[in-house]
Amino acid sequence: MSSSGSPYTLAIDIGGTGLKASVLNGKGKMVAQPVRVDTPYPCTPKAMVDALVKMVKALPRFDRISIGFPGVVRNDHIITAAHYGIEKWKNFQLAKTLSKRLGKPARIVNDADMQGLAVMKGKGLEIVITLGTGVGTAIFQDGELMLKVELSTHPYGGPDTYNTFIGHKTFLRIGKKAWNKRVRKAIDQIYLLFFYDKIYVGGGNARHITFKPDKNMRIISNDAGILGGIALWRLKKS
Q: Which of 78, 158, 186, 187 has its CA at 20 to 30 Å from residue 63's CA atom?
C-alpha cells in the first residue's frame, strides 16, 4: 500500500446487531471490503473490545481509528449504551481502551454523528436519524456538530418512545407496511421539533422505506457509518 493515500483510518461502525469496519485512505475511499461480525452478547466492554480487535485483523494497516457508537458519547466517555446495558458501560473509555490494544490513536462519536459527517452538506440545519436496532439522532448547524440530542428514548406518544415506535423489534412485529406509516409520522414529528432544512435517514432498516421521500429528505447508504471516519479527525477535539 503506497503512502500517497495516508493517513489511513480504521473506521468502525458499532451496532446493536453487528460490528462493521473498513480502512479509508486520505481521500475517504475504502481500500478494503468492509468486514462484519455479530455484536457479542452479553455485551460487556471487554467482550466488545475483544471482538473488535479480532475483527480488524483481516484489514490492511492503518494510522488512526474512528469509532461510531450507538449511545451518547461525551469527552470520549460513554454516557449511555441502551443496547448493551447502561451501568456496565457508563463512563467507559472505549476509544482509549481500543487505542491501547491496537497501538493507534482513536476517536469516538455517536454512530449517527459518524453517518452525518459522511453526508451532511454544511448548509442550514441538517438532521440525521438512523433506523436500526433503535433510533439514532445527530444534528448539524452549518456543518457544525451540535449538542447531542438522543431521541431514541424520548417519549413519542402514549407509552411509546422513538425506539419502541419505529425500532427493529416493532418492524418485525407489525410488518413493513405499518412500520412505514409510523416512520413517516415520526419524520413529520421530528420536523415539527426542529424545522430542519434537510433530514438524512440511514441505518440498516432505511432500506425498507417504501414511501416517496420529500424534497428535504434523503435516504443514505449504510456505509456512511464507516465513511464518516475521515471527517471525524477534522473535528476540533472536545
A: 78
| CA atoms of 104 and 9, how far apart (whole Å) | 10
How far is Cα 203 from Cα 192, in angstroms, rounded to an integer?
22
pLDDT single digits (tens) 72-102: 898 888 988 888 876 889 999 999 999 999 9
Q: Do residues 117 and 232 make contact, with C-beta atoms less than 8 angstroms apart?
A: yes
- If one counts the domains in the chain, the total is 2
Q: Per-residue pLDDT tens for 197-228?
A: 999 999 999 999 999 999 999 999 989 999 99
pTM of the model: 0.90
State which of 60, 76, 111 marks the end of a domain. Answer: 111
Domain end (from 111, 138, 161): 111
Name the residue range of residue 102's domain. Answer: 3-111
Cβ atoms of 228 and 115 within 8 Å: the answer is yes
